[in-house]
Amino acid sequence: MSAAASEWFSTWFDSPYYHRLYQHRDYAEARQFLGRLLEHLHPHPGARLLDLACGKGRHSRYLSEQGFDVTGVDLSAQSIAHARQFAHEHLRFYEHDMRDELPYGPFDLVLNLFTSFGYFAEEAENVVALRHAADALRPGGKLVIDFLNTDLAIRQLVAHETKTVDGVTFQLHRHLQHGFIVKDIRFEDEQDQPQHFVERVRALTRERFEEYFQLAGLRLAETLGDYQLRPFDLATSPRMLFVLKKQG
């Protein structure tokens, strides 16, 4: 089931303005987190890793540099086209919708990082995506889902924000709507034409995730609360980092 053009992520993630808005992201911090995570999970040298929703492949490249065999997949055709310039024998990239079966495994470790989940309009599609990820794991393999702590995120939601990046002023409006955290993004492009995009991430609680995991045949091994891998605390942790194992 390929993503329809009406799905917000199928257009926004391919827009050059998406990458412009988020160019400030701290990739050095992200690499430090990945290093800690690998040390925590200790996959064996040469293990097969899947970067599920890899974007332009920056983190896949780092994982490959650590000696792992890495496959990166993403829905965005433009992101995958960019990532493929860095491909080599132990690093490959494919355009892929996580709701479709993964034919590239089996993997020792599947990573879905930096809130790259919960975008779909139909809740059942989240479980389908998790089942496909589980099916792509070797026996004893692990899956890591990195999601925001929705309880804290909703309490701290910034309703309006203005950001100017490289001469483009973005007006960002955030609100909770029908079980989704919604970010409304408006700006004028370089031809002074008004543009409007929306990000929608389902406000998934820890309990709802646990229901998903059971339906997908995954066992929750531990829940961590931030990129320093401290234990999860509902009141204070910025993230929900789920470490899962395939059942059976």
From TrEMBL:
GO BP term, pick one: methylation
Task: Identify the keywords attached in UniProt to this record, alphabetized.
Answer: Methyltransferase, S-adenosyl-L-methionine, Transferase
Q: Which domain of life is it from?
A: Bacteria
Molecular function per GO: methyltransferase activity
Q: Which CDD domains match?
A: AdoMet_MTases
Methyltransferase domain: residues covered: 50-141
- Record's SUPFAM superfamilies? S-adenosyl-L-methionine-dependent methyltransferases
**One Pfam entry name:** Methyltransf_25
Query: What PANTHER family does the entry give?
Result: METHYLTRANSFERASE, UBIQUINONE BIOSYNTHESIS O-METHYLTRANSFERASE, MITOCHONDRIAL
Protein's recorded name: Class I SAM-dependent methyltransferase
Q: Which organism is it from?
A: Hymenobacter lapidiphilus
